Amino acid sequence: MLRTYDPKKVLVSLGTHSVTGYSDGTFVTAEASGDGTSKKVGCDGEVIRSIDPDGTGKVTLTVHQQSPTVAFCQRMYDRDRNGNDGTFPILIRDLRGGLLFSARDAWVVKPPTREFGKESADREIEIDCGDVEWKGENTR
Fold it and tell me: How many whole angstroms separate alpha carbon 85 and alpha carbon 63?
C-alpha cells in the first residue's frame, strides 16, 4: 500500500491567522504535556495504573524570520502581557487525512529569540495549549 505525505497539505491556524513561511525541516511539533499513564508495581507483583489528568499540550512552530506569523505571535504575546487577552484557538490539520490537533485555548509562551546573521534565520515560537484534542492518523 502506497502512502504519500505532502508538507504543503499541513495547515496550522492560530485563531483567524493561517501560519505561513514554514522553515525547511521540522516546522511544527505538537506534544502532550502530561505524563499519560504511569504504573506502580507492589512487592507482590500487583500493578496499579495511574492516568494523568493533564490534557494540555504544547506546540512549537519553526518559521522564517520574515514570516507574518512572527509578527502575529508577537502581537498576541503583547496583548496577553498587557491585558490578558492574547489567547486563541489552534488547529493543526493534515489535509491528506492525517493527524488533527486542536485546542480551544492557546497562547504564546514568550517571544521568539531574535538572531541575526548574514542570511535569514528561523524563528522558533512556543505555544502552550489548554485541553487538547487529538484525532486520527494518516490513512491515505
Answer: 24
Q: For residue 127, give the C-alpha cell.
A: 505555544
- The reported pLDDT for the residue numbered 58 is 97
Q: Which domains are present in the chain?
A: 7-135 (2.30.110)
Place of cell 504544547: 58
Per-residue pLDDT of 48-77, as tens digits, reads 999 999 999 999 999 999 999 999 999 999
Nearest alpha carbon to residue 14 among 86, 82, 84: 86
Angle at 125 between CA 8 and CA 69, to 5 degrees: 55
**pTM listed for this prediction:** 0.87
pLDDT in tens, 78-121: 999 999 999 999 999 999 877 789 999 999 999 988 888 898 89
Which residues neighbour 129 within 8 Å (Cβ) at sequence distance 6 or greater?
Answer: 56, 57, 58, 59, 90, 103, 105, 106
What percent of the residues of the chain are helix, what percent strand, and what percent coil, each to the nearest 5? 15, 45, 40
**CA neighbor of 133 nearest in space, from 56, 60, 61:** 56
